[in-house]
Amino acid sequence: MSTENRFFYEPSKGHGLPHNPLNAIIGPRPIGWISTRNSQGLRNLAPYSFFNCFNYDPPIIGFASTGWKDSVANIVETGEFVWNLTTRSLAAQMNQTSAPLAHGIDEFEFAGLTPIAGNIVAADRVAQSPVNFECKLTQCIQLTDAKGNKIDTWLVLGEVVAVHIEKHLLSTEGIYQTALAEPVLRAGGPSAYYGISDEHRFDLHRPSL
């Protein structure tokens, strides 16, 4: 088979492109908008683009964090977190919660979001989000490369123990309407997002302080 029309690269040697294509190829990816509390009750809310669902029964979702961030630390400390669906109408506020705030500053307040208590876990849900998964930690795994060297990335997996869905997203037959929710998905490039809606692709630039 001819390889003349194939772009080839070895990741360890760099890709030589304007932006890493891996993020765009494996995508669009749903956003892991993760809310947590630490043992002192301080809230944290942060988006993670390396997120997905990994098992049906029991339902297990997970996200990866580059670096030991507050979300990971809080989850390991308390064993609980909430995933909140990011919709097109919440995209700007989701992006605000990615700002590098000082430890202890409440991202809910910073982004103008309303916390609401979980039914089972102590972590708060985003009230404006139409879907929330309350989760209990199952595993926190430090990733390694092919040689077995540990890297500064942590995979957090959690069992979904409670689900909240706004009723307007369910059809009369009880089927969840994915497109109606207008979920925001991570696409390629440094700031590209994709919404399953008429607006489709749009850009957000991570805020700096």
Automatic annotation (TrEMBL):
Pfam families: Flavin_Reduct. InterPro entries: Flavin_Rdtase-like_dom, Split_barrel_FMN-bd. It comes from the Bacteria. Residues 26-178 form the Flavin reductase like domain. This is Asp/Glu/hydantoin racemase. The lineage of its organism: Bacteria, Pseudomonadati, Pseudomonadota, Gammaproteobacteria, Alteromonadales.
